[in-house]
Structures are given as C-alpha cells and as structure tokens.
Amino acid sequence: MSVEQPLKLDLTTAMARLLSDRELRAQFRNDAGQVAVTLGIDESARETFVGLNPAELEEQAQGLIEKRKHEVARLLPLTWKTLSLRADPLFQEFAESFWPEGHRRHLLDAVRFGEYLGIHCERSLNTVEWNQRRFDLVGRSLSFHFVKDLIIEDQTRYAIQILIRWRGRIIQRFLF
Amino acid sequence: MRLVGVGYRHALADWIETRPAEVECLEITAEHFFGGGDNKLRGLSETYPLYVHGLGLSLGTPGPLDSETLESFIRVADLSSAAWVSEHVAFTRTSEVDLGHLNPISPNRETLAIFAEHVQQLQQQSGRKVIVENITTHLRVVGEFAETEFLNQLCEQTGCGLLFDTTNLFINSKNHGFDASQWLHELEPSNIVQLHVVGYSLRGPISANMRWHDHHSEPIQDDLLELTAEVCEYAPVQAIILERDLNLDDIESIVNDLRRLKDVCGAAIEA
Q1: Domains of chain B
Q2: With 0-12 CB in 10 A as exposed, 13-18 as middle and 19+ as buried, what is A52?
Q3: Beta B91-93 vs B98-103: how paired, if at all?
Q4: CB-based contact (8 Å) between B96 and chain A?
Q5: Which of A158, A166, B25, B227 would bridge B49 by S-S if both were Cys, CB 3.0 to 4.6 A apart?
Q6: Does A25 lie at the interface with B, CB-CB under 8 angstroms?
C-alpha cells in the first residue's frame, strides 16, 4: 500500500497566495521559512520563496489593488466623488476579499463594489451609474429602474431609468 | 522598414479614422475585442499593419493555458490579420486566484520549460510568431538565470522574439538600481522585434525613496527617449508602439511623441 504524499505547492501559486492575502504577507514578514513549510512549498522553490523581499511583496500587492481601484473609480465616478476620502479604505477592504476573474474583471469589480457599499449601508453609491455598469455586464436587452439619485444641474431627482441595448450600443432614457 | 504607431484605444478611434500621417501601424489589445468589434478589426486591418497584444494569457502559470482565453485571443489575431502576436513574461493568475495584472516569474529551468511550452502552443495554434514582453515589477524574483539570459534562452528554444518595453526597463533600472544599457546589451539583438514606449510617472518627493511607475499617461521624457534611440541602434526593431492609456484626449502630445519616435528611431535605422 502506498502512502499518498501531499501535493507540493509551486512557486507561482505560492506567490499568488502571498500577493492576494494580507494576513499571509504579515506571517511571511515575521517568519518566511515557517510560511514555506506551512504552505508546503516545493523543495526546489523554497530558497527563492524565502528570499522574496517583504517590502517589495507589499508594494507589488498594493500595486495590484491600485490598478483595480483606478479602473473602478473610472467606472463609478459619481460614487467615487461622493465617497471622497472614504473611497480608498473602503475599496481596499473590499478588494482584499474579492478578486474578479476574466476579461471583464473591471466591470465586475465595479458592480461588486457597488453591492459591497449597499451591504455596508453606504449611501454614497450612485445607483444611476451602477445600474449602467450592471446592465453592461449582464448583457440584457432592456431594463427599468426607479432611481432617486439622478443628478441634473447639481439637483438630485427621482426618475425611471430605462436602459436599452440596440445593435451593440447602450441607450439610456429617463422618465420623470 | 521600421514603423511607428500607437496602441489602439477606443478613445482614439475618431482620431485614427482621420488617418493621421504619424500613425503607420497599430497594436490591438486582444481583450478589448473579446466581446465584439469584429467589423472594426477587419476595417483597421485593411488600413494598417496590426499587431495583437495580450494581457491575460498568463503564459507563466504552471498547467495548461486557459482554453477560452486562448480561443478568443486567436480569434482577434485572425480578424486582425496580425503580423505577430505578443504577451508578457509574467503570470496574472493561478488555478486559485486571478490577480488581474502582471507579476514576475522566477527565471529558472522549471519556469523556462513551462513558459517555452506555452509560447510554442500559442505559436502553433495562432500560426503566428510570438513575441514576449519584459514587464515592470516592484517585486524581484531571483532564479538560476539572469532575466536577460532567461529571455535569450526562451527565444533560442522556441523561436519567439522580444517585445522590448523600453519604459519598463527604464523604470525597473531606476527602482532596483541597475544599468539599463548593460541589461539591453546582454540581450541577443536579433530577437528584438517590437518596442513599447510611453512616458514614465514619478511618485513621491524627490528623494532616495522616489518610485518610478508605468501609468501609461505621460509624454516621453528625454532620458527615456535616449534609451529608446539606443535600443533602435542596437537591434533590428521593426515596429515601435506608443503605449498610452491615459490622457488620450491630448492628441497634440501623442502626435508629438510619435514624431519624436520617428525622428530618433527612423534616424537610427539609416545610420
């Protein structure tokens, strides 16, 4: 009877874990060797893994979040403006718990960040722009929303938001 | 013939339709056309030589390439009648997480084997030459080889070429304190097919802790242009792409960058 050996972790997967997990990076900073043992890093990769610079790891990880943040701020500009100084810490907290996948990841990130703000009772979410992003992501041909935060000439108004997909373009209309 | 052009961005579409004299070729980002735009690609390919650049194939990840991403990438390359296709010497995801952006790989034998296999698969399935790009990274990962040796061996083993990102080399050399010119001259020049260049960004006050970044937003600075000219003198570069992603409404500055690139790199090929 053969005893099954646990699979060894390759360096790339181990680095990805470090880059996506702040707590693991903190453990690595304290004792890189122990983290290598805990993760079961392949013997051939252990020296390289342990030799990673914690400060550089942190900077690389932060860079990944910064790039996502920049894209979400571009996709939800009104929300970002309203959040003001709270935008950065809120996005940081959100981004560390969710990693979007695929080539539409920025759109997915924006939609999920909107959901996150909703869950946290955050009133800064502009539902008009969030509905636009959701509509773009899910690929429906028609959708209606009652919105309370349509901004026209610096005034907030109630409206029915209508989104229509027509020949690859998204058309938006409002009823008052 | 050495061509100068831009990375195609939807915000530049109207300007490119005017057929500006400074644009001689275009680089298409594959992922921007995964969801459609077939007619646009066909139209562009009738007007310009196109090169297709990928962001998410993650050639450095162990295991098979993602078949859906690969299929979409090849479809864009075919629609573009791409002269060649490119990806990064990096990983963006693993089986556990999609990090979404480029991260360094360790330059060792195991990674070289994985990377070479993926490059060969991409070359075979796309029916096109693959060129691979050096990335900018805050994180240094050491291995058995120097990064340049890794690139030389990769090209030798697979027949692929290099997409030499001058800005990425410049930034890495500043942030990690090495000589960019020496790094360049460690590469086999005949492998360098295409260049990327865009102005770098600086963060933090002028001090020892100042960091260089690649926000793809700035006009090309003089010191970076000097390095670009050096690359053009050193290698038989066929195409130079201005890789601007931000400040795209500043057409005047884009045109100015393209003219400067043509001046320094056009002159280099005639020297």
Answers
A1: 3-270 (3.20.20.150)
A2: buried
A3: antiparallel
A4: yes
A5: B25
A6: no
Spans in chain A with pLDDT lower than 70: 1-7
Among the partner-chain residues B72, B103, B140, the one whose CB lies closest to the CB of A53 is: B140
> Which A positions 34-63 lie with beta carbon below 8 A of chain B?
44-45, 48, 51-53, 56-57, 59-60, 63
State mean pLDDT over B66-73: 96
B179-209: string of b/e by CB count within 10 Å (b at 16+)?
ebeebbeebeeebbbbbbbbbbbeeeeeeee
- The set of long-range contacts for B35-38, using a CB threshold of 8 Å and a minimum separation of 24, is B35/A103, B35/A104, B36/A168, B38/B79
Residue with tokens 């196109």: B50
The answer to whether residue B90 neighbours chain A at the CB level (below 8 Å) is no
Rounded CA separation B116/A60 (Å): 25
Q: State which residue of chain A sits closest to B31, comparing Cα positions.
A: A103
User: By C-alpha distance, which of A176, A171, A172, A173 is closest to A157?
Assistant: A176
Residue among A17, A48, A67 minimizing CB distance to B101: A67
**Given an 8 Å threshold on Cβ–Cβ distance, is B99 in contact with A44?**
no
Which helix (H) or strand (E) covers residue B133, if one does? strand B130-133
Q: Residues of A with CB below 8 A from B137's CB?
A: 60
DSSP strands (E only) in chain A: 142-152, 155-166, 169-175
B201 touches chain A (CB under 8 A): no
Q: Does B210 have pLDDT greater than 90? A: no
> Does the interface ipTM go beyond 0.90?
yes
Contact between residue A176 and residue A159 where contact means Cβ atoms under 8 Å apart: yes
Give whole-number Cα distances, B28 to A50, A68, A100, in Å. 39, 21, 23
pLDDT at residue B271, rounded to an integer: 47
pLDDT one-digit tens code per residue, A48-65: 999 999 999 999 999 999
Angle, vertex CA A94, rays to CA A67 and CA B217, nearest 5: 15
